[in-house]
Specification:
H-NOX_domain_sf; heme binding; guanylate cyclase activity; alpha+beta; 200 residues; H-NOX domain; Heme_NO-bd
Length: 200
């Protein structure tokens, strides 16, 4: 398990709930140290232990915890860099969806040894899509669901989404786009200090 993933869990809990809940999660998971190093690799069972301890401490099922992590990755001020990277995927939410298949490759450009599951977007009908999430990272579909919900808000789109539990590590996210311009999206600039780009 890549340390960047576990480090993300850590900062999510600390930023959202505070240091004490994270300390109790560390104790509940039986970890030797309270901090994860982003560039190290850890045994898979540490991931399972952390998610299980978070379920007990936060009183939240694992799928909801993972979805909240995904939302955090896009919406929290500390994650502005990732949000900007994702926004370059398209001028509107549909273009963004079609850019998701390139996400694992883009992630490897940023972190060479970070392996994300393959993503395959299927056009089911007008404004209806199925996102197939490959095996390789437990619960990644729920994290991605949180990312997608936050990005839909970012674009100002009204979208219905649901993720199944999956089998053998594979998951499916059903996506129905109700309206592309339901509300005003968040401001986005092509450069960090440049003029805002027009919202799609």
């Amino acid at each position: 398990m890549h340390g960047l993933i576990l480090r993300t869990f850590q900062v999510f809990v600390q930023d959202t709930y505070g240091p004490e809940p994270w300390r109790r999660i560390v104790d509940g998971a039986g970890l030797d140290a309270p901090d994860f190093e982003a560039m190290l690799n850890y045994p898979q069972d540490i991931f399972t232990a952390v998610v299980g301890a978070a379920e007990v401490e936060l009183r939240k099922p694992p799928d909801a915890f993972l979805e909240d992590v995904g939302t955090y990755l896009v919406s929290h001020p500390n994650s502005e860099g990732l949000r900007r990277l994702l926004r370059f995927g398209g001028v509107d939410f549909i273009e963004f969806l079609h850019s998701l298949e390139d996400l694992p490759d883009r992630a490897r450009l940023a972190v060479a040894d970070l392996e994300l599951p393959d993503l395959d977007l299927v056009d089911v009908a007008p404004n209806r899509f199925t996102l197939l999430v490959g095996a390789g990272l437990p619960g990644f579909g729920f994290v991605l669901l949180g990312v997608l919900r936050a990005m839909a808000d970012d674009y100002g789109a009204l979208v219905l989404m649901e993720c199944d539990g999956g089998t053998l590590g594979r998951q499916t996210i059903a996506i129905t786009l109700i309206e592309t311009a339901y509300s005003q999206g968040r401001q986005f600039a092509l450069a960090a200090s440049g003029a805002p780009a027009e919202e799609g």
